[in-house]
Each structure stands twice: as C-alpha cells, then as structure tokens.
Amino acid sequence: MDRPAVRAALAALEAHRATISKTRTIDLFAADPRRFERFSVQLDDLLFDYSKHKANDETIALLVTLARAAKLEERRAALFGGAEVNSTEHRPALHMALRNLTDKPFLAEGKDVMPEVRDVRAKVAAFADAVRSGAIRGARGDKITDVVNIGIGGSDLGPAMAARALSPYASPHLRAHFVSNVDGADLGDTLKTLDPAKTLFIVSSKTFTTQETMANAASARKFVADALGEAAVADHFAAVSTKLDKVAEFGIRPDRVFGFWDWVGGRYSMWSAIGLSLVIAIGPERFEEFLRGGQDVDEHFVSAPLDRNIPVLMGLLGVWRRNLWGDDVHLVIPYDQRLGRFPAYLQQLDMESNGKHVCRDGSPADMRTGPFVFGEPGTNGQHAFFQLLHQGTDVAPIDFLVAAEPNDADAGHHALLVANCLAQSEAMMRGRSTAEAAEALRKQGASEAEIAALAPHKTFVGDRPTSTFMYRKLDPRALGRLVALYEHKIFVQSVIWDINPFDQWGVELGKELCNRLVPIVQKAGQSLAALDGSTAGLVEWRRRYVGR
Ligand code: F6P
Fold first, then answer.
1. What is the pTM assigned to this prediction?
2. To pair with 546 at 20 to 30 A between CA atoms, which of 169, 221, 295, 319?
C-alpha cells in the first residue's frame, strides 16, 4: 500500500540521521544536564531510560510524526475497540480483556467478552486453590506435589518463563514442570522425577491438534494409566484449549477443562487459562497482581502522550534502529537470573508477530520488518557474546532489565549485579578511543611499539544504543508490566510497518512437510521419490543406523 505520509516522515528521519550521526551520544549529556530526566519515563515503580540512544528532541518529534503518519492512534483505538485487527484470520486481538480488572466492557463483534472472561478466571482460581489446598487430590488420595504443563510455543513459554521469574512467590509444596519438545527426552527426563500418584498434567493447546503437545499428552496419559490404571486418568489431567470438542475426545473431565477464545493469540495467551500452571504455582491473588501489571500498561498505552508513552517509545526507537540505522538484531539482556527464559519468551512474541514479508493488504513490505531477537541473562552474556557487542562490526541495540532490589538474594550480590548492568550500558555508549587506549597502555609502562600494536585492539567505537528498564523488584505486577510493554511495543512497530502482528502463516509449511515426512521416516520401505536430493539422502543415511 502506498503511504505517502509515511514515506515523507521516513525521508525527514533519514535527513535527521545524517545530521545526528555526527554527534556522539555521550556529548548529548554534556549539552543537556537534564537529559536523563527528559529521556526517561516512569510508570509507578518502573523506569524506562532511553537516554543512551542517539536521539534528541527532534528525533523523538520526527518519530512521533512517523507514528501519526502510520495512524498509530487510530489503529490503537481499533485494537482496543475489538476491530478485526487480525484480518487474515478474521479476528480481533483482545488479550487486554484478559487482564481487565475493572468493570469496563471489551467488545468482540459487538458482544462484551468480560462476563465469560470473569467466569473462566473464577473457575481457574477455584481449581488452583483446590489443588494448592489439597482439596483436589490424585486417584489414590495423595496430595498433588507436581504439576506438569504440556504445551508448546504460546502454550508453554509464557507460563514457563513466569513460573521461573516468580519462583519466590510460588508454593514450596508444589513443583511446576514444563514439557514442550516432541523430543522424548523432554517428557522422559521429567517423568523420571515424578510420582504419578502425586502428579497433575495440564494439556495446554489452543488448537488441541499441535503434534508435539498431542504426542506428549498421549505418552503422559500412558504413564498415568500404566501406573495407576485407566480410571485414574480423569484425576490426573486437566486441559486448557479453545477447542472443547477435541478435549472431550481426549477424555478429560469437563469440570477440568478451561476454555479461552479465538480472539486470544497463542503468544498473547499467558493472561488466560493458559496461565493455569502459573496460577497453581503462585496462587490466584498473585496471578491477579500479574494481571494488574498488564492492566497498568494498557491504561498507560491508551492515555499517555505519544512522546511520553513507554511502549510507543520502545517501538519507535526500535524502528529508528531497524529502518534508519539498519540493525538486524535486537538484544534483551535481563540482569535478573530468574528472567532467564524472558528472551526466549520474547523471541516468540516478537518474531512470530513481526516476522512478516507482506503488508496487511498482501503487497510486499515496503520497509524491513521485525529484527532477530535474542538474549541471555547478564552477567553470563558478558563472558560469552558481549565481545561482539562491544567490538564487532555490527551494532545491535540492547534492552537491559534490572531490579532496584532483589527478592531474596544477598544485598552484596545484588549491588554487584546492578553495577555490572550499568557498567555495560555505560561502556556501550562511552567506548574508548585509540588515544585513550594508548594512554592507558603508557600508564602501564608499555613501550611505544607495544602501544602501536595493541591500542587498536583495545579501542571501543562506543555509541552503541541501549535502553534500561529498572523496576523496584521482580514481583508479579512488575512482570505483568514488562510483558505488556513488549506486547504493545510489537503492536506499535507492526503499525509503522503496516503488517499483521497477530497471524503466523510462516509456521505452516514446515508443519505440512513434517506430516508428509513422518511415515517416510517411520517406515523403512517408504519411497523417497518425492523428496529433494538432500532430504532423501539424509533419510537414507539415517536408515543405515535405525533398527541395527
Ligand atoms: O506453530 C506455532 C504455533 O501455532 C504458535 O503460534 C502457538 O503458540 C503454538 O504453535 C502452539 O499452538 P497450540 O496452543 O494450538 O498448541
């Protein structure tokens, strides 16, 4: 689709980039003593600092002009108003309804979804409380000690990430496990640690057809039936899905089935009954705090001015880097070990949403769309891939995430952690010139020949952009805020790029080809004629070993 206003806004940004590229970011601080206050936004006890980006007032104004040219405000209203924003699947995307704790309605096709949302929320809470208290027990009367969520993608990553992040808030009497991979090692290694009589399996799948989840669920069912008898299956399984007929076929008791709706995208579903394993782990009250964190961000996203709006700024700074500076990768580095799965969670959220090559109307994308997203907790990343971030030939913007205070770690450790986080963002921006490197070597007593040889290797170009999120403590509400901020950031970028962030057709081809390959891989005599040379060769090579 031709978007002249967007083209004009991008041209203005390109001209501005040519000017601001001559200024070093660190010098922007010298020119403006209030830069930190002016280039950071606070949402209650969460701070978003973007002052270490190469951006000034004009940059932000031009980015906001771009957002308006792309009709961000209108598209945001359509999202919250329940319009069919997922046009290829003819659905709204109303995950915000799931965390709405007010009496405000949310409309899908003119109908308020909130009564149903509240019903399922109450059912989930009652079930979770009963498992936690021991009112719900296994077939032999044992208390449940282990809960295994079987799901993949959006039916796994959210609750798995959050269960680890919020482990200090979890019941000490219940262990949460997450099995996703069709690799039998995933389920097998988990089952080895479990007593079937004390285990509850939750089969989580929006479609209830996903190969990996169905295979793992069938094996888990056999594990229970073999140990406790077929009749025990009913007491050891629950399910979360939009496809209630398929759940019934699997044989899960109707009172243990928790529904959600087509208007909840898989990767946006952790706020729904898909969070059941998390609700059991941390309890319904704390889960409600998590929802409240999401709701805080929704309110902020719809009401804050665009240039003081955290997800809008996150999205626009991402566009600034991706489209004006050409960065291919976006890094997320939590200085918070319990956020170890947060980058993996964001990979699905961001890359499955914005990894698109056509605009909403099917025409080719006229801008580069979503970047690759990756990350690992700091400080570990520092001792692995940070070398490239500091001195490689490519630049990747980084989001640093860190708590002001720990949940339960010793204060001395936490001070070290925070100092590391701040040192990295400072080093990324400040860099070290060759003259500074030479001076440091001279002070260490190096000869002029050694200085000439070594100084280039010790030079850091610097000027590498970073944002820092600092929150008081990693509690349920803070986590809810972080997740919702990224959700809306992704939406903002999809508007600039004019793509649909709520479908995922790119996962289909591999699934289809896999279905065709399963019998060929399973049975020795199957013809390889339809396969390309490499695939046929690999199947054949494997056949030499299998069954020997
Ligand atoms: O293959 C991708 C995907 O469809 C994701 O979008 C989704 O989160 C995941 O698979 C799991 O799907 P389901 O919840 O239907 O099992």
1. 0.97
2. 221
